[in-house]
Amino acid sequence: MTTEIRSATERRIVFYQVLYAVTMLFSIINTYISIVLLILLQLNSAIAPRIGRLDHI
User: Fold this and answer.
1) 20 burial via Cβ count (<10 Å: 0-12, 13-18, 19+)
2) How confident is the model over 13-32, as a mean pLDDT?
3) How far is CA 48 from CA 26, 30, 31, 43, in A?
4) What is the pLDDT of residues 28-44, one digit of tens each?
5) What are the φ/ψ torsions at residue 52 (nearest 5 degrees)?
6) Which of 42, 44, 39 minimizes the C-alpha distance to 54?
């Protein structure tokens, strides 16, 4: 594994962990919004579309 791949993997993991934390904070405001965001995050990480900002992480 090259250092570039390792670095990209670490950035992606940290990015998703931050998004999970933000999703959990939304549960204070509205539980349903938090659930929807969590499902969308899971789908995004499972399917990993090649669009937008997440393609560069």
Assistant:
1) middle
2) 92
3) 23, 26, 25, 8
4) 999 999 999 999 998 88
5) 65, -155
6) 44
Contacts of 40-47 with C-beta under 8 Å, sequence gap 24+, read 41/16, 45/16
- In the structure encoding, which two tokens stand for residue 4, read together? 């570039």
- The token pair at 5 is 């791949």
Query: How does DSSP classify residue 32?
Result: H
User: Residue 46 is encoded by which pair of tokens?
Assistant: 């499972």
Residue 50 scores a pLDDT above 80: no
Q: 56 pLDDT exceeds 70? A: no
Tokens of 13: 């993991």
